[in-house]
Amino acid sequence: MKAVFDVLKANIGKIVDLWALSTAKSSYLRGSDLSTSEQVRTDRMMAFIGALIMRSENPTERRSQEVLKSAIRAEHGGQLNFAAIIKRQTLLREAMLSVVEHDLPQMNKTTAKLALDSMIDRSIEGTLVLMEQYVDMRSSLSLCMPGAPDSKYSFDQALARFCKSVLDYFDADFVAIFKYSSDSKELTCLSSSSKSITLAKDSTFQLDAVPLAAETISSMRTSFASEEPAQLKRKGQTKLSFTHTVVGPIIYDNVIDGLFVVGDSSRIVPLTPVEIDVVEGLAVHVAWVLESSRMFQQMQVRSRAQKVLIETAAAVQQEIESEEIYRIIATRVAELVPCDELALYVFDWPKRTCSPVFASGHYASEIMSDRDFPADTGIVGYIGRTRKPEIIMDSEADPRAEYIPGTPQTHTRMLAVPIVGKKETIGVIELMRYPPVSFSQEDLEIATLFANHAAVALENARLVKEITDERDQVEMHMDLLTHDIANYATPITAYFESIRSKKDLDPVVASMADKTARQVENMMRLIEMVRVLSRLREGPPKSFRSMDLRKAIDSAILEVTDRSHVRGMNFEVNLQPEQVMLVKADELLKEIFVNLFYSTGLNETKQKNLLSISAEVRRERKVDYWWVKVAQPGRSIPHHIKGEVLRMSKSSKSELAGGFGIGLAAARNIVARYGGSMWVSDIAPGDYTKGCVFNIMIPRLQ
C-alpha cells in the first residue's frame, strides 16, 4: 500500500488533470462550478486528493481527519445531489487507478483496485455524514421561518437546533447568534450551542468580551483569527475566547443587526477559506431568517395592537371617570409593550405641575407619592416639552433624571412616550425594563400609536368632565330660576293684583302698577318657558299617545287670553269645523302653541296683536303632516335672522327682545321631539315688513 500512496502523492497534479477533464465531460457537472475559475477548482481538487491520501495513510491521526473533513466541505460544500457525489468519486477512482496502473504495472490490478476502493469508500462515507449534517443545518434554519409547515419547534427551539447543527458540521466548540444594540453597544445572545461553556439566552456582553466583534461591526465584513493559547493568555482571555474564531456580520438594510460566531479551541487545523465562506453565507441566511421573523412578529404585534386599541376605545367610551380611564390606558399599553414597571403622568399646565395618575411595579406607591412636581423637570418634563418619544438605555445615568424619594438607584431601560393633545401635551407614559432587556424601535412605534389614541380618550374625558361640570352649573341655575325666583315672584304678583283692585287708586300709580304687574307676569312666563326647556332636556318618553292637535290649539288660546297682560291679543282661527287633527305626542303638545302665542305677545309697545291660525294636510317624502300656520301681521322678522330666531342665537337676541326667542326655541324643540319641523316665512313672500308666518309641521296620525 505504501507504494500506491507514494505513486498517488507523486502524481497528484496528473490525477487532478484527469479528474477535472472527466468531470467536465460528465453530465453531473455542478452548475456552480461554471462560475469558479479553473485555478480555484484545481487547487480545491488537489487539496481534497492530498487530504484523502493523508487520511488513508494515517486513519487514526486526528490531523488527517480534520484535513479530510475540511477538504470535503470545500469540495462538496452545499452539494445535496447524492448521485453527483457518487459520480464524482467514481471519476476520481478511475483517474487514480489509471495513474497506479501506469506507474506500477507489476502490481496486481485487483489489489490496486481494492486499495483505491477503500480510499474512495472512506471519502464517500465522510462526505455523506457531512452532507447529512449540512442538510440538517439548512433544514433547521428553514424551521426558524414563521409559518413553517409541520414545524414542531418554536422559533427559539429551531434557532437552538440550527446552532447545534452548525456545531456538529464544523466540529466546533462554540456557535452563537448575537443581537447587536447600537445604542448600548452590547451583544445579547439569541441562541447558542457549546461543548465547553454554558451561555443562557438573553445573556448580555460588551463588545470587548466577544473576540473580533468590534472589528466585524466596524468593517461590516467577516473576521477570522487563529491564535495560540499563549497569545490568548497574553491578550487577556475571556469566556468567549477561542484559538480559532470566525465572526460573520448579520446585516439587514446595510445595518449591523447582529453577529454569527463560530469558535473552536480543540481542532489542530484552522478553518479553511472555503469554510469561512460557508460561515459567512450562513450569517446571510440567519439575517434573512431573523428579519422575516421580526416582520412576522411585527405583523402579529400590530394586529394585536389594533385589537387592543379597539377594545380600549370601547372600554374608555363606557367610562367617564378619569381614574378608570388612566388605569385602562396603562394596563392596555403594558399588554402591547411588556415592561417591569410603568408610570402614567398627567400635566396641569395652568399650575405648571405634573403628577402621576397610575403606576405599577415594585415601587408604584413611591411613584404615586411624588406629586405636583414642576412640569419642566426630569425626563417627564423633557418629553412633555419636546413632544418626542425616546428610548433611554440607562435612566439612572441620564442627566435629565430626577430622583424619586423611596426608590433605589437602579439602571433601568426606559421608554418615554408623550400623550399629545390638540393644544398641549396631556401627559407622558414611562415604561421600564430591567437590563439586559431593552426596548426596540418597534416598541416605540407601538407605544406612540397607542399614546395617540390615548390622547383622544383623555381629551374626551376632559371634555366630558367639563360638560358635566357645565351641566351641573346649568341645572343649579335652572333650579334657582324655576323654583327660588318663582317663589319670590309669586307673592309679588299677588301684591300687585291687590293694589290694582283698589277703586280709589291714583291713576298714575295705577298705570305704574299695571305696567309693573305685566312685567312680573312676563317674568313668570319666561320662567315657565325655561321650565319647559328643562323638561325637554330630560328626553322624550318611551312612547307617545294619540292626541288631538286642534284641542291643543284651542286650549293654548284659552290659556293665553285668560292672562291679563295679553288681553290685547286677538286670534283668528281658520280650521275646519269638527275637524279632528290627530298626532302622536305627549302632554307638552299644548306648550308648542302656548310658548308661541306668549312669545308673540311679549311686546308691550303693541296695543293690538292679531294671530291668524290655519291648518292643512301636506305630504312630504311619503309622509303626511299637519301643517299649521300662525300668521302675525304685526311682527316683522328680517331675512337674515329668520333661521336664527328659533335657536336663541346671539344675532336673534340682539334683534328681538322680551323673551321672544326663548319661547320660540321651546316651541321648536317640542316640535322636533315629535319628529316635525318649524320655520319662519313672510306673509308676503320676499317682503318681511308685511308680517311673518310661523310654520309648524307634525306627522299626521291616520
Can you describe this structure in just a few lines?
By secondary structure, the protein is α+β, with helices and mostly antiparallel strands.
Question: Can you tell me about this structure?
Answer:
- 51% of the residues lie in helices and 20% in strands.
- It has 702 residues and is an alpha+beta fold.
- Among the domains are: 2-143, Globin-like, CATH 1.10.490; 155-298, Beta-Lactamase (2-Layer Sandwich); 540-699, Heat Shock Protein 90.
- A hairpin with a 4-residue loop joins strand 7 (341-348) and strand 8 (353-360).
- Helix 3 (38-57) crosses helix 6 (109-143), helix 10 (273-317) packs parallel to helix 14 and helix 17 (589-601) packs antiparallel against helix 19.
- It is elongated, with a radius of gyration of 47 Å.
Name some characteristics of this structure.
alpha+beta; six-stranded antiparallel sheet; 702 residues; 19 helices; elongated; Heat Shock Protein 90; single chain; Globin-like; Beta-Lactamase
CATH architectural designation of the domain at 540-699: 2-Layer Sandwich
Distance between the termini: 120 Å
- Which regions have little confidence, pLDDT < 50, spanning 5+ residues? none
Report strand order across the widest sheet: 3-2-1-6-5-4
Q: Would you count the extended β strands for me?
A: 19
So what's the CATH class of the domain at 540-699?
Alpha Beta
**Helix amount:** 40-55%
Query: What fraction strand?
Result: 15-25%
Largest sheet: 6 strands, antiparallel
Mean pLDDT: 81
The geometry reads as elongated
CATH superfamily of the domain at 540-699: Histidine kinase-like ATPase, C-terminal domain
Structural category is alpha+beta
CATH topology of the domain at 540-699: Heat Shock Protein 90
Gyration radius, rounded: 47 Å
Number of helices: 19
